[in-house]
Amino acid sequence: MQTLQLDTETIEVVKTTRRGSIALKVEPDRIALMVPKQFSDATIESLIENERDWLLQQIRQHQAEMPKRLLLKNGHELLLFGEKILFKEDHHTPVKTLSVALDGAHLMAYMKTARALKDPQATQRKKVVQFFSEQLQTYLEPRLQMFAEQIGVQPTEVTIRNYKSRWGSCYTDGRVQFNWRLAMAPKAVVDYVIQHELCHLIHPNHSADYWALVARHCPDFDTHKQWLKDNGAALIAF
Prior knowledge:
The protein has 238 residues and is an alpha/beta fold. It contains 6 helices and 11 strands. It is flat. The two termini are 36 Å apart.
């Protein structure tokens, strides 16, 4: 397999039966440039150098884009803290029970269980939700403590919930809850939601004083709020 380096990106060159045109394929774990098989190595290197800026622009643009839909299907892209990962089913590795684990840029679902499952897809989804919930819990713990100290509040309990219309909630007794789907949002957005909920422990409303407090601790909250407005529906629908 021929590979070429373009800045920090490694590009896999794939020769195909295409006639005179090239195509760029960007996936979470690989970048492939499809070229006509009659192209010589020197021609390919020259082409990449001449189209350097365009190729980098296309790569960066794709990496920054949200997947059109977040589907729990083999070969589809998902997100982990805003970074694209590829969901893959493994039907060959024997496992005692269906399990889900991160392997590089792949979220692997090991499906070959010792006993046949009545509803493997339902079990698979349950394991995926558990994976994202654990990822979010791990991220939340130190960030919540840090932001709580900065804001001057003390949450009494933190839980991960399966909300279908909100990102988090808090209660006057100090309980704070977060949507497990936040594990798919960029970490800066998660931080905003944490601060958003903690500020409610001081102002249990959306008054001017409340938003002033949010702005004091998260000056660019508008950017993160907009990200949720633009992309939140895709996460909630997952």
